[in-house]
Amino acid sequence: MRPNGPSRKTSPPTGMIDGMPTIPLRVLNRTLLQRQLLAERTTRSPLEVIRHLVAVQGQEPNWPYVGLWTRVAGFRHDDLAALLRERRVVRATMLRRTIHLAAPEDYRWLWPSVRPVVRAALRTARYAEQIAGLDPDEIGETADKLLAGRTLSRKELGRLLAEHYPGRHAGRLAEVAETVLSLVHAPAAGAWGGWSTRTGIQVTRLADWAGTTVHERPMLETMIERYLAAFGPAGVMDIQAWSGVTRLRDVVDGMRPRLRVLRAEDGRELFDLPDAALADPDLPAPVRFLPAFDNAVLGYRDRTRVIAEEDGRRFAEIASAGVPLFLVDGFAAGTWWLRRRTLLAVPFRPLPSAAEQAVEEEARRLLPFVFPGEEEATVAFAEEGSLPLNRLQIMMGRD
């Protein structure tokens, strides 16, 4: 299934490398904007958009709301909150071993596909001492029984597990359970109102929460097809960067007969769905404000289709893509932050006056969403270098 996948291809590539059509960078950029629903706000429902994107990163509660606001016409906070309350979207550990939001029917196949990556965390120093000599699966079975038919906070679950495994760190035991089992979070964990990771998160079993269970086997081909529908054309390393799953070359090679094979201008091999549309390089690209950790950026190993390499290096080592960005003409042109009642736009370099005006207009449209009820909220520009790029030093909405 490829919900809301791209339609018949248009705008063919303009060159050839080793007998394969090449795609100019600008075509890759415009195609990303179209498939990520950033070229024009969509009238699709938020649930349809989440399904199209496969999963939306959301370990810090407010960011998925911003990501949907920038894609969905007329999006309101309660549109997502209701999906969580009504159990039509679940919040859990998924791609890249991080918290994402997804429809339960997609989480069913995503979890077994990424489970080996999630489970690999148990080999790190964080867990080595605390679970030495213990079987993680046995911890999971114990947690599964403790959680049957109820929802517990991580702290409560850890305390109960520690009664079964005396002398072990309760918090680590709860984390092991969440690594081994398909546990989802209660809706409050994903409610609007937090720019940083929440504490006191409650967890429960997928079977109890959504009345369904995960598939027994990984569905890597499904994962790749769904990725390409929303992120393609892309290379194997891009798919691996998005999913966190490694050694996908053989899987993609097995799918090669039913995929379209292209080349980037630098010679990288790219794959796409055979009926997928390639965008017109002259497609207009409005200013867009992306949340931190948006998959339009994190969805690739080579991110030059959305952010120049020199700009990505400004914060890559200290914040990865975990900074909110704004796009001008389709490419990242700066970061943005919230300070008190001010939305600060920080361009990477001086903007032409027309572009600065467009950024300010879009920022003013965003203001009432990120500062609900704050009539005195305003927009300002700051010079690059005037703010620290380390996200931990800039608390959203605070000094």
Automatic annotation (TrEMBL):
Annotated keywords: DNA-binding
Protein's name in the database: Winged helix DNA-binding domain-containing protein
Organism per entry: Thermostaphylospora chromogena
Region span, Disordered: 1-20
GO terms for MF: DNA binding
Domain of life where this protein originates: Bacteria
